[in-house]
Structures are given as structure tokens and as C-alpha cells.
Inverse folding.
């Protein structure tokens, strides 16, 4: 019955390509990506900052990460946020969890194609948590959806509930860079994770404030190394 209803909904509301937003023909519904985009997926490759994944003209670390070194060991992002802006909005705010699974599949392909060494050293991945009130309002945690899909497609174990958010905060998107760091300070707790190499997953990297605070919590709980992997990064 569930599959039947999902089929009916797809006929009434056909899915769009998660990358370009074009209406998908029926034969491409399951892939979630149109033929054109599938032939040239715009992964972030080339010379990139080793912490945030932003493009570099030279060197290994961008000016922003040199000026304020991140807490985590290193980081990568699969896409430029501007490419996925509409798709991420549908995923997070329109409840399109299927799009999230497709994004996770693309993130897995990015790891397998360009960062195989990461997969080999990671003990497990975990998601940046939402406050329970926010998660109840949205119906899901977007980073959790991404993690489940990445794990399914790479074999990296996913440990849920390693991190928790102790209080609700103002949405980071409404704040300046300085305000973001203050807003998120000391709001995460971590379960014990002694001597573990952890991959921390989120949907968007902007200032890195949330990822830094999560990393601090993981290190306080014994993590040996924290690496971050985001679906997208803003410029």
C-alpha cells in the first residue's frame, strides 16, 4: 500500500532533478538526476582548501581557515551551495526526504571517486544534530538522512545519537559570522568515543561555527580525529 501511494504521489507531483531542478521523465525518477547532469556531475575537485573545500588559486588552506584555524582535522564538501540551493531548500523545508537520500548517494560517489583514503581510516560517521524541538517541527534531521544514505552506499558505519544538542538556538542563517560563533557555543554534548576517527556530516558549510563546536564536543569525549564532510559549501 505504501509503495502504491508513493507511486500515485509521483504521478501527481513528478520529481525534479536534484541538481538542475528540471522535471524528470518517468524513467529517471528513481535516479533523481537527469541524464544531462548525470553525465557531468559538478563535484568540487581540483585545488581546494583542506578544511572547507573552497577553491584555491594556490597553497593548501584558504585565507579564512588560515586566519581562524578550524577545530577539526580536515574537511571536504561535495558541491558549491549555489548549484544545490533550490534542491536543498526542497529537501529541508518541503520535506523531500527522497531528495536527501539522492544527495547522500552523490556524497558517497564523491568519497568513492576522490577520497577513498578517507573511507579506509574512518571508524564511523555521525550527524550534526538538531535540537529535538526543531527536529520534531521538521519531521527529520537532514544530516541524519545524508548519513544513512552515505553509509548504505559506502559501508562506513553510522553511529546515531553520538552528539546531542542541549538547547535551542537562533537559526544560524539569520546571524553574522561573529554572532554564529557565540550563538552555538557550548550547546553540544558527545557520547564517549575514545581513540576514534570520526566523520562529521552536515548539509551546508558556511562559517564552520557549528562544525567547530561539534568537533570540540567530540574531542572532549576522546575522539582521536574529527574530519568533516558537507553536502555543499558557500563561497
Amino acid at each position: 500500500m505504501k509503495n502504491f501511494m508513493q507511486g500515485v504521489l509521483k504521478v501527481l507531483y513528478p520529481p525534479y532533478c536534484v541538481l538542475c531542478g528540471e522535471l524528470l521523465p518517468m524513467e529517471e525518477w528513481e535516479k533523481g538526476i537527469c541524464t544531462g547532469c548525470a553525465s557531468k556531475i559538478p563535484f568540487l575537485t581540483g585545488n581546494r582548501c583542506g578544511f572547507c573545500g573552497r577553491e584555491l588559486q594556490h597553497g593548501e588552506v584558504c585565507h579564512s581557515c588560515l586566519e581562524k584555524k578550524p577545530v577539526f582535522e580536515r574537511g571536504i564538501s561535495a558541491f558549491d551551495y549555489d548549484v544545490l540551493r533550490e534542491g536543498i531548500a526542497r529537501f529541508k523545508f518541503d520535506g523531500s526526504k527522497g531528495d536527501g537520500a539522492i544527495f547522500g548517494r552523490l556524497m558517497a560517489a564523491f568519497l568513492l571517486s576522490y577520497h577513498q583514503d578517507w573511507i579506509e581510516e574512518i571508524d564511523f560517521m555521525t550527524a550534526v544534530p538538531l535540537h529535538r524541538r526543531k527536529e520534531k517541527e521538521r519531521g527529520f534531521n537532514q544530516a541524519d538522512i545524508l548519513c544513512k544514505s552515505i553509509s548504505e552506499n559506502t559501508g562506513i558505519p553510522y553511529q546515531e545519537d553520538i552528539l546531542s544538542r542541549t538547547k535551542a538556538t537562533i537559526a544560524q542563517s539569520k546571524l553574522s559570522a561573529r554572532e554564529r560563533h557565540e550563538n552555538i557555543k557550548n550547546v553540544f554534548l558527545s557520547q564517549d568515543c575514545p581513540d576514534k576517527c570520526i566523520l562529521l556530516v552536515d548539509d551546508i558549510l558556511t562559517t564552520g561555527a557549528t562544525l567547530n563546536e561539534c568537533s570540540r564536543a567530540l574531542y572532549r569525549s576522546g575522539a582521536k580525529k574529527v574530519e568533516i564532510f558537507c553536502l555543499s559549501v558557500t563561497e
